[in-house]
Amino acid sequence: MTLIDVIVSDITPETPTVKSITLVKADGSPLGPYLPGAHIDVEGPTAITRQYSLCSTPDAPDSFVFAVKKEANSRGGSAALHELSVGDTLRISTPRNLIAIAEEAQHHVLVAAGIGITPMLSMARYMDVHGISFELHYFARTESEAAFLPLLKDRCPDKLHQHLGVTREAQEHVLKDELAELPPHTHIYTCGPAGFMDKVFAVAREHVSPDAIHLENFHASEQPDASANAAFEVELDGETYRIPADKSIVEVLQDNGCDVDTSCQEGICGTCIMQVLEGSPEHRDNVLTRAEKESGEVMAVCVSRTRGQRLVLDYY
Ligand code: FES
Question: Domain FAD-binding FR-type, which positions (predicted)?
Fold first, then answer.
């Protein structure tokens, strides 16, 4: 994956644990625009690469803004980004969308919890400016921990539904109330902790089809123990490679000189997705949509394997 150098031009504390970081190109040329909901890979000072949603105005080309929550058990990623100063250099990828505004929808319901507000923010900014029908439900423990809440209150108070201090046990009840009466052709989008998104999906599923539910998931799934894996074969460009139980497809392809881009290696960023021409993938990622997984036409080769003996793949 190609990364470009960018300069930190501004750092703003949004909450006691969240900072937003503004990036520009050193030569002043535009970075954007980007599609609402997009994320970038950010290689921080410790060379750890993580995915962060963009939360600036998608139409504004001059800079990108992303927000970082300092995790209590950070292994260097978020903690190092919190130590940045204006003028420091980072390396970022071009924006990619794992979640995007569905053009066919007539109304959009955004449901965010905690730092999951970031992709929802760029989508809300875009829909607000472009007169697209939406509502935003924002769950946070307290007002002071709700990043960008003052901005949302100022810019789209009539679209914003604050749910502060709702316990985990009560979240489902609130969601059921809020999603009970949706206009026709509504799509629902969510980002937050995995357990929260599971609740949103379950409640949303009572009202809309799975294709109308969009998850932004930056959490890796727990992978089965490698001892439970079986070996199989992968064909790519007419060459056949044996994938042993203890190696991923991407490891074997890269060991053999195949040019497969990767970033997270955890099934959450979407960089390594390849086409499946033959065979049946066993999906272990958190990046493909349910519909994409059911189609069997694409797979994330950093974590996923096959239910059969052989896959025929092609570059995406
Ligand atoms: S490298 Fe990120 S999903 Fe495979």
Answer: 1-102
